[in-house]
Design a protein that fits this description.
This protein has three domains: 9-129, Rossmann fold; 132-217, no CATH class; 257-378, Beta-Lactamase (2-Layer Sandwich), CATH 3.30.450. The protein has eleven helices and 16 strands. It has helices at residues 17-26, 42-49, 69-79, 94-102, 115-126, 141-151, 186-193, 217-242, 247-273, 301-321, 360-378; strands spanning 9-13, 35-39, 57-61, 84-89, 107-110, 133-135, 155-161, 164-171, 174-180, 183-184, 199-204, 278-285, 290-295, 330-334, 337-344, 348-354. The strands form three sheets. Strands 6-11-7-8-9-10 form a six-stranded antiparallel beta sheet, with helices on one face. Strands 2-1-3-4-5 form a five-stranded parallel beta sheet, sandwiched between helices. A five-stranded antiparallel beta sheet has the order 13-12-16-15-14, with helices on both faces. Helix 2 (42-49) runs parallel beside helix 3, helix 8 (217-242) runs parallel beside helix 11 and helix 9 runs antiparallel to helix 11 (360-378). The chain is elongated and about 80 Å long. It starts with 8 loop residues before the first strand and ends with a helix.
């Protein structure tokens, strides 16, 4: 039998011999064909898992003598991260469920259960080997969240950094719940956004939790970015007040950084043109002169900079006259798409030219996320 047609292996772990016998003989049917293994304890389960053939899914009870189901779950996630786990229990409680979820199981089944319900859960769990798994390094967590939201599916995104772990639940493309350490809801979501790198694991969810978040995805992301910016600014201020003695050395490093600044700026501007529907991103001085740009062929970015400076100045003047305070962003909508203007530092502004079907929320998020980076890269 080829690897493609090889039956998936499912290990059932429970100290109830009757249940083991029943599942071993009744779980498979015409629509679910798997190779079933059984173990009557956590210790025996680990022996099976340590065998020569890979186990694709473990179905385990929580309360067992010796190694409990939760302890077994930890061992599985540490040793066999690509093995899915379904946790079942005759003693349902929110605390058990929360602990199982945080330790790596997003599938939770309460006894007694209908065999068809378990079959459906097994089928879903075995499909997870094609789900997204990767690292946050090299891909923005906010980008992954946006993609999952746009997909409109019911799923969960697990993010792990060191000993910290958080889970974000999506239902119909909306974020409806999040947990991280002792936090739940939007505060847990903001905590997850502050993870500095880590592992991503995107999985389907059979039991969607109660909704604790009723804020649009775009608003959640923008608030998360705002909080991160505030904390970064606070850290920078604290470091600045205690690091005056390092100014001479820092000044020497500035010359090196400036040489790399324009290359960094190109990378940041490319972040905008990577958004579907965005064709141009320009950094323009308030005098109308182009500082740098990324654009598709045939677009005169110097002309864009010269014209946009007038519109940017007019928008700032209007805000001043109306007592609206400083300009944060201005958008001009045309039949074929918008042009967005946003101040960058004291002497420049960003111009983003998009098509009419572009994701405006993602553009706003990128502007807010990268403004400080542009200021640093361009030394403005």
């Amino acid at each position: 039998m080829s690897d493609k047609n090889k039956l998936k292996k499912v290990l059932i772990v429970d100290d109830e011999e009757d249940l083991l016998w029943s599942l071993q003989n009744n779980l498979c049917n015409d629509s679910l064909k798997v190779d079933i293994l059984v173990a009557s304890s956590g210790e025996q389960a680990l022996e099976v898992l340590n065998g020569s053939e890979q186990v694709d899914l473990v179905i385990t009870d929580i309360k067992m003598p010796g190694i409990s189901g939760l302890d077994l779950l930890i061992e599985i996630k540490n040793r066999y991260p690509y093995t899915s786990v379904i946790v079942m229990t005759a003693f349902p409680s929110n605390e058990y469920k929360r602990e199982a979820i945080l330790k790596g199981s997003l599938h939770f089944l309460e006894k007694p259960f209908d065999i068809n319900e378990l079959r459906e859960m097994v089928s879903l769990a075995l499909k997870e080997d094609n789900m997204f798994k990767g690292t946050v390094a090299g891909v923005g967590l906010t980008d992954v969240i946006q993609i999952k939201a746009l997909s409109g599916v019911n799923s969960a995104l697990r993010v792990k950094e060191g000993e910290q772990q958080g889970i974000i639940y999506f239902e119909g493309g909306r974020i409806v719940h999040a947990i991280c350490d002792d936090l739940e809801g939007d505060e847990a979501f903001y905590q997850i956004m502050e993870f500095n790198g880590g592992l991503l694991d995107s999985v389907n969810v059979t039991n969607m939790p109660a909704h604790t978040i009723d804020i649009p995805v775009e608003a959640l992301l923008m608030e998360g970015v705002r909080r991160m910016d505030e904390k970064s600014a606070a850290r920078a201020s604290a470091e600045g007040s205690s690091g005056n003695e390092d100014k001479v050395a820092a000044g020497e490093e500035d010359n090196i950084k400036k040489e790399d600044g324009m290359a960094d700026l190109k990378d940041v501007l490319t972040e905008f043109t990577n958004i579907p529907g965005v064709n141009t991103a320009c950094l323009v001085g308030r005098d109308g002169f182009l500082l740098d740009s990324i654009a598709i062929a045939g677009i005169d970015t110097e002309m864009i900079g010269a014209i946009a400076s007038s519109g940017f100045g007019a928008s700032e003047s209007m805000g001043t006259q109306l007592g609206k305070g400083a300009l944060s962003m201005s958008m001009i909508e045309y039949n074929e798409g918008p042009v967005m203007l946003s101040p960058v530092g004291a002497d420049a502004f960003l111009v983003v030219v998009a098509e009419k079907d572009a994701n405006l929320g993602m553009i706003r998020l990128k502007i807010k996320k990268h403004t400080s980076q542009i200021v640093e890269s361009a030394a403005i």
